[in-house]
């Protein structure tokens, strides 16, 4: 027995060596994410990580290695592996040569084998080709063209993934959490497309290295900055302009990136001729430093603000700030590590000048992450790490802004919390056909001491009045203050993650996944569309963490020039917060008095048919889905919300079709088009009216039981490069676009009220974007 | 605070437009609507009215009156004060509300009994009106502020109304953020002109009525994209015979301060 066992070790312990290195783009030195490193002889391979690093351990021997990535010319290398080899190479952009792509099928074969499912990646180049409103390339608007991703509508902040709420998305920019992904109420997203290197959206089968939100992870990496030469690119548009500068500080060693973007003030309120403003700006900065081949440092920052003001009566400003320092360190050619220290905050400020009232609120956190990738063998990759986040929730501070203001200074109670997690995940090639990814995350959340924690009779902050059949706030019987170091409530969750890919043949595979996710912080919002003043609140004595379980299965097929993905998912979320009817959330210091806990569920079927090569490229995405919520009463005598029945969430869209296409006619001209069709979003309409105090009041039907009219529009764009073959450094292009080409008047909302001029009730449709032509000039040098 | 939402909605003006459309609505069953109030003015005058109507389909132009109900108010000593029907669903009586006394409204309608019990809520007096001629979003509109001083160290709630031929402004206020200070009710309607007379009323109310009115006012303005999820608001009146056939509306007893102002 022992002999047999020993024998098997011997047979496996044939001499092995590690091939590792970093892949970058030739010309800029920018590291490349997701490059396939393939060893055809062994029918195996790896993919570069977020920092362009790869490592694979192989038996001693001579190998041909292929380095390939979409949009780049595949490089071949022959390597004689008789010791550990460091092989860093750079790839050339495909467009810079006239030759056709060499090998494409191998790239896709690897994807067929990857157990990771339910993801969508977009390159900055793709995003820039998609026509959007005002001609401004936009990350989130591009994402919503993919299956399973939608937004509540034009003018709604954020995005919804697989029936999840906006606050259930983890949005990471260079690993820092962003709390608000939209500028100007969703008209733009906060990401400057010029500064983005790569983005991946995880909709299901979410790896164990991510946690803290239950619906999705949007992981965005900024460019590191050009290591070879100074370069700039930018654009001038009708509503906004941007400029990005990058270059070496020390050639091949250190680089910088500085990007800025701003919309023009006053632009949004052209109807008024005085001091109204509505604009946004953001700044992206990064410094990268390669100390040596084992140590790299990145310092990056983001700062964005929106400013909206109405004459001298009102001013509103809000935005994200992040600052982070990362250290990539190679302990060995098999062990890659990244240590990040990240500060992130979101601020919202409101100045009601006509009252003399200032309100400031926000959330900030300090985040320490240490992640390891251990490339044990060509069959096994192990990732593990830890994550510790300290939060401060600034619930709000009210201050008078003038001596004559009747407002008293008042501070809502700040709250503090620690979120910690450790995880391990592994990818195993079990057989030639079956690859699995399994992970486990253990997360804890400690609500730390605060001032004035409300205490209620029976710990019940919300009472039900049986005679009036309404929920009422309970009166606290006491308030207790705790030391900041003391934990007042703690939670712990084990979050298993599992996905598997079974390769049916070289061009198709079946995948399945399960994930459990825990979410400890919640956006407190009961508006029909998300808004920038929706503020996060932590779990604690009265709020339980949200827990989601999701299963998904999928079929993936690769044709010569096409790919097809079909996925189905079912998701259930426990402890989803809901708000009693007519709860007032603004500057509410006792949010627990208006909250009830329910659950949410979502299920759907997604199709993605994609053409990735040739002059005509694009995709057709179709999703049929359901997203619902239920908040039953806490006992038999309580009705809960909506009588305890399941009801559609405000972002439930039964059918969602997006067709997007780009056609390259000549070197000079290329064209793009989107066609979008969605079922109208649920809304609550009146089912009657009455008068009280001579005011007309609607009687409402049950929550979200009607729908707005179907939402659809067609967008077109044309890109003209005047001198495609110019040898000059300066390269320019014009983008002409038309959003909503047939001028569909899509309702953002329907308002039911009395028109007091004529004394009659009316349904008023509010539509945001009619046909919008735009022109943008993009340049680089 | 709901004004914030209103202001934000202004952003919508940008590239947007509004138009009146036809919408097919579901119809809910008809309910009794009770608008009952006892008001005691600061000059000693008092008025008690109960207006009974029913709910109607949303786009109907007429609200049906109820003229066949039996209405009375009973004070805590058992004294029964009957009402007589006047017109347009209005029933009247002459009762001077006394502070600290419970009054129970009792209505019999279609063999069902509706009741609610309330007490008089006092109010701080309106002091003066301030006019500003460069207000509003355009900076050219007339805004009026009617000032009063909130009593310190006690929780107070107010219902404010400004009425003129040009239109009405309503607001429900709580002193959470202005306890003990001089503060104002805000009057802003379009097209107001020099010479127009505006009547301001400030009613003393309790927290429950504040919550009720706050929501009602929000709903009467229609639900824009940033409004809260609307739901039918329940008042303080119970159908004792059939709990499910609940009425809408409210029974309120207020001290009222009033001030009249001519736009300059």
Task: Tell me the strand percentage band of chain B.
Answer: over 45%
**Residue share in helices of chain B?**
under 10%
Q: State the major sheet of chain B.
A: 8 strands, mixed
Describe the main β-sheet of chain A briefly: 22 strands, antiparallel, barrel
CA radius of gyration of chain A: 27 Å
Strand adjacency order, main sheet of chain B: 6-7-3-2-17-15-12-13
Please compute the radius of gyration of chain B using only Cα atoms.
20 Å
Which whole number gives the mean pLDDT of chain B? 88
Question: Which shape of chain A, going by the Cα principal axes?
Answer: globular
What number is the mean pLDDT of chain A? 87
List strands and helices in order, with pairings.
The complex is a heterodimer of chains A (781) and B (264).
Chain A lengths: L1 H11 L3 E10 L10 E4 L4 E4 L5 E7 L1 E8 L6 E7 L3 E2 L2 E3 L13 H9 L5 E5 H6 L9 H5 L5 E2 L9 E2 L7 E5 L2 E3 L3 E2 L4 E2 L6 E7 L13 E7 L8 E6 L3 E11 L3 E10 L13 E16 L2 E16 L3 E19 L2 E18 L4 E19 L4 E21 L9 E2 L3 E15 L4 E15 L4 E3 L6 E4 L4 E4 L4 E3 L6 E19 L2 E12 L1 E4 L10 E4 L7 E13 L3 E18 L15 E17 L4 E15 L16 E2 L6 E10 L4 E10 L3 E2 L2 E7 L2 E6 L5 E2 L3 E10 L10 E9 L9 E7 L4 E8 L4 E9 L1
Parallel strand pairs in A: 1-7, 1-8, 12-17
Antiparallel strand pairs in A: 1-4, 2-3, 2-5, 5-6, 9-16, 10-11, 12-13, 14-15, 16-17, 18-19, 18-53, 19-20, 20-21, 21-22, 22-23, 23-24, 24-25, 25-26, 26-27, 26-28, 28-29, 29-34, 30-33, 31-32, 34-35, 35-38, 36-37, 38-39, 39-40, 40-41, 41-42, 41-43, 43-44, 44-49, 45-48, 46-47, 49-50, 50-53, 51-52
Chain B lengths: L1 H8 L7 E5 L10 E10 L4 E9 L15 E6 L4 E3 L1 E2 L4 E4 L9 E7 L2 E7 L7 E10 L5 E9 L7 E8 L2 E8 L7 E6 L9 E9 L1 H14 L17 E2 L8 E15 L2
Parallel strand pairs in B: 2-17
Antiparallel strand pairs in B: 2-3, 3-7, 4-5, 4-8, 6-7, 8-9, 9-16, 10-11, 11-14, 12-13, 12-15, 15-17
């Amino acid at each position: 027995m022992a002999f047999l066992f020993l024998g098997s070790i011997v047979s496996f312990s044939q001499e092995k060596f590690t091939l590792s290195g970093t892949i970058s783009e030739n010309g800029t030195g920018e590291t490349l994410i997701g490059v396939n490193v393939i060893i055809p002889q062994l029918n195996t391979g790896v993919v570069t990580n977020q920092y362009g690093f790869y490592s694979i351990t192989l038996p001693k021997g001579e190998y041909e290695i292929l380095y390939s990535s979409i949009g780049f010319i595949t490089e071949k290398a022959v390597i004689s592996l008789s010791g550990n080899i460091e092989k860093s190479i750079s790839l050339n952009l495909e467009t810079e040569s006239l030759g056709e792509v060499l090998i494409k099928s191998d790239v896709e074969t690897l994807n067929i084998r990857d157990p990771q499912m339910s993801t969508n990646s977009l390159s900055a180049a793709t995003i820039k080709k998609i026509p959007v409103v005002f001609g401004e390339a936009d990350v989130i608007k591009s994402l919503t063209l993919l299956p399973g991703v939608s937004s509540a509508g034009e003018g709604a902040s954020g995005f919804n993934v697989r029936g999840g709420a906006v606050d259930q998305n983890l949005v990471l920019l260079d690993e820092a959490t962003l709390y608000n992904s939209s500028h100007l109420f969703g008209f733009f997203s906060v990401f400057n497309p010029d500064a983005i290197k790569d983005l991946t959206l995880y909709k299901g089968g979410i790896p164990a290295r991510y946690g803290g939100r239950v619906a999705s992870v949007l992981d965005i990496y900024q460019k590191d900055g050009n290591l070879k030469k100074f370069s700039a690119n930018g654009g001038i548009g009708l509503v906004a302009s941007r400029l990005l500068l990058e270059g070496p500080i020390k050639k091949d060693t250190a680089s910088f990136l500085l990007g800025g973007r701003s919309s023009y003030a006053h632009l949004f309120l052209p109807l008024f001729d005085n001091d109204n403003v509505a604009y946004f700006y953001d700044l992206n900065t990064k410094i990268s430093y390669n100390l040596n081949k084992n140590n790299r440092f990145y310092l990056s920052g983001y700062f964005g603000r929106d400013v909206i003001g109405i004459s001298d009566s009102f001013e509103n400003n809000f935005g994200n700030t992040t600052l982070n320092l990362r250290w990539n360190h190679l302990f060995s050619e098999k062990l890659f590590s990244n240590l990040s220290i990240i500060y992130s905050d979101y601020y919202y400020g409101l100045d009601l000048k006509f009252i003399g009232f200032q309100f400031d609120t926000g959330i900030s956190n300090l985040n320490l992450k240490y992640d390891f990738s251990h490339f044990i063998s060509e069959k096994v990759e192990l990732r593990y790490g830890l994550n510790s986040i300290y939060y401060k929730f600034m619930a709000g501070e009210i201050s008078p802004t003038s001596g004559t203001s009747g407002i008293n200074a008042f501070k809502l109670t700040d709250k503090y919390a620690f979120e910690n997690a450790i995880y391990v995940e592994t990818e195993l090639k079990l057989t030639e056909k079956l690859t699995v990814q399994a992970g486990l995350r253990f997360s804890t959340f400690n609500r730390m001491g605060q001032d004035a924690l409300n205490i209620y009779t029976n710990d019940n902050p919300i009472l039900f009045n049986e005679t009036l059949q309404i929920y009422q706030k309970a009166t606290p019987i006491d308030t207790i203050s705790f030391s900041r170091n003391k934990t007042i409530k703690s939670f712990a969750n084990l979050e298993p993650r599992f996905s598997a890919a079974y390769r049916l043949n070289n061009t198709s595979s079946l995948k399945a996944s399960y994930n459990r996710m825990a979410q400890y912080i919640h956006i407190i919002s009961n508006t029909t569309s998300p808004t920038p003043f929706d503020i996060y609140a932590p779990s604690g004595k009265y709020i339980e963490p949200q827990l989601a379980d999701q299963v998904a299965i999928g079929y993936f097929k690769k044709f010569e020039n096409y790919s097809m993905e079909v996925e189905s998912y079912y998701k259930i979320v426990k402890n989803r917060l809901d708000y009693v009817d007519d709860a007032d959330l603004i500057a509410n210091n006792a949010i627990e008095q208006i909250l009830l806990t329910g659950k949410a569920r979502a299920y759907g079927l997604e199709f993605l048919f994609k053409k990735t090569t040739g002059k005509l490229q694009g995709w057709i995405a179709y999703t049929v889905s359901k997203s619902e919520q239920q908040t039953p009463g806490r006992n038999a005598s309580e009705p809960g919300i909506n009588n305890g029945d399941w009801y559609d969430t405000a972002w439930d869209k039964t059918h969602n079709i997006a067709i997007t296409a780009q056609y390259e006619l000549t070197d000079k001209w290329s064209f793009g088009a989107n066609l979008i069709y969605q079922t109208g979003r649920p809304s609550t309409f009146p089912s009657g009216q009455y008068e009280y105090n001579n005011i007309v009041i609607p009687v409402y039907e049950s929550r979200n039981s009607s729908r707005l009219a179907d939402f659809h529009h067609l967008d077109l764009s044309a890109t003209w490069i005047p001198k495609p073959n110019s040898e000059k450094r300066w390269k320019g292009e014009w983008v002409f676009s038309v959003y909503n080409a047939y001028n569909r008047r899509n309702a953002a909302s329907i308002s039911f009220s009395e028109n007091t001029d004529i004394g009659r009730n009316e349904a008023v449709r509010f539509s945001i974007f009619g046909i919008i032509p735009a022109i943008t000039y993009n340049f680089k040098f | 605070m709901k004004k914030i939402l209103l202001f934000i909605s202004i952003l919508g003006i940008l590239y947007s437009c509004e138009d009146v459309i036809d919408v097919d609505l579901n119809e809910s069953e008809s309910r009794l609507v009770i608008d009952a109030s006892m008001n005691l003015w600061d000059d000693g005058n008092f008025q008690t009215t109960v207006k009974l109507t029913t709910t109607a389909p949303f786009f109907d132009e007429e609200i049906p009156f109820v003229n066949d109900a039996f209405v009375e108010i009973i004070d805590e000593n058992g004294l029964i004060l009957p009402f007589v029907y006047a017109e347009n669903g209005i029933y009247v009586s002459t009762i001077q509300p006394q502070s600290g006394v419970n009054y129970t409204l009792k209505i019999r309608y279609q063999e069902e009994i509706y009741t609610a019990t309330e007490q008089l809520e006092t109010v701080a007096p309106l002091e003066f009106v301030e006019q500003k001629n460069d207000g509003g979003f355009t900076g050219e509109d007339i805004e009026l502020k009617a000032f009063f001083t909130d009593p310190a160290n006690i929780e107070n709630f107010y219902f404010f109304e400004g009425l003129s031929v040009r239109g009405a402004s309503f607001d429900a206020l709580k002193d959470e953020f202005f306890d003990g200070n001089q503060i104002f009710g805000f009057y802003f309607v379009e097209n107001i002109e020099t010479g127009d007379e505006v009547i301001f009323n400030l009613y003393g109310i309790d927290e429950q009525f504040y919550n009720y009115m706050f929501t009602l006012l929000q709903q009467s303005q229609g639900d824009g994209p940033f409004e809260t999820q609307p739901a039918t608001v329940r008042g303080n009146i119970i159908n004792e015979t059939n709990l499910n056939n609940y009425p809408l509306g409210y029974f309120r007893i207020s001290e009222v301060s009033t001030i009249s102002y001519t736009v300059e």
